[in-house]
Each structure stands twice: as structure tokens, then as C-alpha cells.
Amino acid sequence: MKKYMVVEKFKEGLMDENYRVYNEKGRQFPEGLYYLNSWVNKEKNICFQLMESNEESLFYEWFKKWETYVDFELIPLD
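Given the sequence above, the corresponding C-alpha cells read:
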């Protein structure tokens, strides 16, 4: 499994709506994409998620589900 850092930047004014959807539907990960840990800075509207997968394309499938609320940056880790 390859590890990745996902940087989520919540769009202005949508953090609460993002959490509402999260509480209703969960993270909505596709099969094969795994969450390890996360850290949030509410003041800066940003979240860092350590994740892993054997298929990088799964991240982009997941990003599409949240693109209304979040801008993503995917960083592969060595």
C-alpha cells in the first residue's frame, strides 16, 4: 500500500455543510481507499488526512463526491 497525504481546503462558508453531509453519509470512500488518521485546523479551514491505497485513481473518484465543499491536493509519500 502506498501512503498519501490529502490536504482538504474547505470552501469559504461551506465547512458546516460539509460536516452535515459527512455526518449523514460518512466519508464515502470507494473500495480500496483507506483512511489512517486526520488533523483539522478550523481557523484555517483545512484538514490533513493520511490515507493509503494501491490505486491513486480512487482518490479522484472520491474527490468528485466532495468537490462542492472542498478543494483537494493529493501528495504521494515516500
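DSSP finds two helices and four strands in the chain. Try to locate this feature in the C-alpha cell string yourself.
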